[in-house]
Amino acid sequence: MPTHVIHARSPRGDDRAAHRDIDRSPDSIVRVVADAAHFPGGRADGVARPGSEADVAHLIQVATHVLPIGAQSSVTGGATPAGGLVLSTGRLLSFQEAGREHVRAGAGITIDALQELLTPGGRWYAPFPTFTGATVGGIVATNAAGAATFKYGTTRDWVDALTVVLACGCVLDLERGQVRAAPDTGFELRCTHGDRRFRPGTYAMPAVPKCSAGYFAAPDMDLIDLFVGAEGTLGIVVDATLRVLATRPAVAFVLVPMRSEAAALALVGDLRNRARETWASQDPQGIDIAAVEHMDRRCLELLREDGTDRRLGMTLPDGTALALLIQLELTQATSERDAFDEIAAAGEGRAPATRLGRFCERLRQHGAFADAEIALPGHRARAAQMLAFREAAPLAVNQRVGEARRQIDPRIDKTAADMIVPFDRLGEMLAIYRDGYARRGLDYAIWGHFSDGNVHPNVIPRTYEDVVAGRELILEFGREATRLGGCPLAEHGVGRSSLKQQLLRELYGAAGIEQMRAVKRVLDPAWKLAPGVLFEREAG
Length: 540
Ligand SMILES: Cc1cc2nc3c(=O)[nH]c(=O)nc-3n(C[C@H](O)[C@H](O)[C@H](O)COP(=O)(O)OP(=O)(O)OC[C@H]3O[C@@H](n4cnc5c(N)ncnc54)[C@H](O)[C@@H]3O)c2cc1C
Hints:
Layout: E1 5-7, H1 26-30, E2 46-48, H2 53-62, E3 66-69, E4 85-88, E5 95-97, E6 102-106, H3 111-118, H4 136-142, H5 149-152, E7 159-165, E8 171-175, E9 187-191, E10 194-198, H6 224-227, E11 236-243, E12 250-258, H7 261-281, E13 289-296, H8 297-305, H9 308-311, E14 322-330, H10 336-347, H11 355-365, E15 373-375, H12 380-407, E16 419-420, H13 426-439, E17 444-449, E18 454-459, H14 464-483, H15 498-523
Parallel strand pairs: 1-9, 2-4, 3-4
Antiparallel strand pairs: 5-6, 6-11, 7-8, 7-11, 9-10, 12-14, 12-15, 13-14, 13-17, 16-18, 17-18
Bound molecules: flavin-adenine dinucleotide.
């Protein structure tokens, strides 16, 4: 029976003093003052690498401000310190089995390491973000989501328990289903530092599959959900119990050049519907799609300019408007020979018998079969090339942004959005991105997680004025995404980015932000943890 009351306990762990040291050497500090966002002005007084929850609790108590960091792959400045202590989770590497479908993993374990630990048992952590060097603590703190959200949801859906050290140094053992908000009073926290009450916000969160936009809120919410996506501002995650797949899916990657965006939307809409039917009916031969990624025409031009298409053997037909990369899940029993038979049958228009055949048949119906290329589950090298092709799009844009910064104006920066709309509004949203950029005369490229309606429009700046115009457009796009029932902050979080913090304010209004501040004030009255992340202490 759930309760709204939670008791925090004293921290456990060994007392090895070495793991409580604060390293204040400039060499060590310089290594942690920037994250992947290259957010300016990072500074820190010291770095610590605790080895247990007791070390974490001790360090929180001796420091004025603490920023937890994992792999610092944040693209929002959330892992950029603004003074105080940087607490790296690199030594929190515990790993315990918790049955076949759960593991308890230390906050510092990377997704790559987690998948390796799961490999001998044939298991798999499904909702991983594209950057697999990210840590368990980082993905929980940002509610990270990857390409396969369509099938597997976000990190939140896979977190069943968390150990969290609070700003007061006490520890919460949170288990999903145990502590839920009471209708009138919200939550009650009891610890040696006094009893405290706090309520979830009353703002309505967008009903989309991905949302990394401040504190989760719902009337009878589970307390664990408050800490998922809180970006380190409410407590430090020491370990997480994650649900894992008992069997790693057999995935085929299919690169599909499309002649028009409308055709791509129609194909992906059809595949989404059929996959949902398969999940509902459990038809072993039904079409099963985990993800569809995309790159627009400009991305493909950049890859041609860079020679990436030739290097990876991915020259697409003339007239390709957009490329899709589909993750098709097959049954383990699909042999290569059967697969080729099915592909050939689809090409000849014969009735399909298997999952793969039915998929090929859909491609044929949408006029996309002839140009498609498939990498079957065993074809790892080709699948890796396809994934590298898709990943080359952000790299190509980042490289051009860096060059423009060096050669034209040091103020030039990456100007990108991370927004989601319901899939049936994606066509409208893509038109809004295009029209906005055309109105401002900007060069741009768009790629992303097409099957979720979550894409990343990026400016390719030629001047600093392009960056300014691009930032203004992001605010415009955010309003449009919200109007279409989406979320302007889909998977990367908010961090210290002033633009993303403004998107958050516009999404929930000043009252919503004030409700988040009220939760923070109760759990972290001295504003010790990750100050400046999500919102400032006082209203601006
Ligand atoms: C090339 C690239 C691709 C990416 N692709 C995706 C993607 O597909 N999907 C996606 O969601 N994101 C993506 N990201 C963003 C980033 O990888 C994720 O946000 C990731 O979850 C961050 O993990 P991290 O370990 O690097 O955390 P960090 O960047 O170190 O920290 C991120 C935030 O989490 C907090 N934090 C870290 N550890 C803890 C902890 N133990 N307890 C409490 N708070 C903590 C930090 O304070 C910070 O606010 C991408 C980034 C890059 C560079």
